[in-house]
Amino acid sequence: xxxxxxxxxxFPLGVLLLxxxxxxxxxxxxLLIKGGNLSSTSTYQELVRxxxxxxxxxxxxxxxxxxPFIAMISYNIITGDTLTKxxxxxxxxxxxxxxxxxxxxxxxxxxxxxxxxxxxxxxAKLGKVSLISLILTIVILVIVMVRTxxxxxxxxxxxxxWIFAKSSAVQAxxxxxxxxxxxxxxxxxxxxxxxxxxxxxxxxxHVSVSLAVIISVAFATCxxxxxxxxxxxxxxxxxxxxxxxxxxxxxxxxxxxxxxxPLECFVTRExxxxxxxxxxxxxxxxxxxxxxxxxVATAISLVYDCLGIVLELNGVLSATPLVFIIPTACYLxxxxxxxxxxxxxLSCLLLAVGVLVMTVGLVLTIWHPQECSHGKEMxxxxxxxxSFHNSTLPP
Length: 395
Fold this sequence. Notes:
By secondary structure, the protein is an all-alpha fold. The chain has one domain: Amino acid/polyamine transporter I, CATH 1.20.1740.10. It has 13 helices and no strands. Helix 1 crosses helix 8, helix 2 (about 10-40) packs across helix 11 (about 305-335) and helix 3 (about 45-85) packs antiparallel against helix 11 (about 305-335). The longest helix is centred in the N-terminal third of the chain and has 44 residues, at about 45-85. It starts with a helix and ends with a helix. Mean pLDDT is about 85; it is low at about 385-395. One of its GO terms (molecular function) is L-amino acid transmembrane transporter activity. It is found in: Membrane.
């Protein structure tokens, strides 16, 4: 969704916002653990409950459940979009074949892969899975970069493609927040460290976010430079179906989201366990809750398939408060530093920005939803259409 966020914000402003969201992510993740240390708590929910009582705890629990749950829906949408096109490159497999049916692909990958992996109880077991996802992400980035050089000339551009800023920039921040957020599982990962200290956590956070922003800027830039104003919410919807190089990218992309899905399921299950089972799920309830979460997420993804709007809504409704608002609000309540201290000033600023982005972004997403052309072959994939379109573009 990052190239799509460039389309929303305007390319130059989009790149600047991407760096800004990365910095805020880095800062607020560390601030979150600082708050945990100040309050002697070991989970996000405990931190908010100790700081803002039951009301804050329930609000956070709702957001902490919604973000990964909606992310799971988006991952299923991506799986259905990408792997159907991969299988259609197999001789004899067409759109009418069962392997070309997104509903079948989503159900198949859920039953065979995502549900069994989601049933693990120990998040540390997903370490190797996460490494595979990271490697595949690099492969996908290389494919997108190569296609920027080889395919971009085939896609017509206009002067409006490069304007500095657009009115939907706030919605773009929501998509970027969706891409960077990891606050909902930060305490889980912090607790899995061999030496869970603030120094180690800060170092890991700086390295992780730095790597993430480098990959994200490269991906967003190359994706948008290739497709400009035609960029879809799912970048692989933009490539032609007969593009074998992009098809390999789709395959890597599909595998990546399948392997990422269980991590989000861990978080949703933990939230339910903490709220309804006092943090202790028996084996039977562990299996039951996991199956219910996966089944409901899968059912929604089977009936709704517009990724861009899903990313926007999850960004402004869940990611923005989890990144901007709650960590800073907790730290401000717990901090013993004077108000003129830099951490307090920056926290106040981020809190105000978060409220603004969440409010304006939600209004714009509802009033001006982005168009979704899911599953359609793009016009520039037909040479005659490209020639005609080029002839009608202003000089």
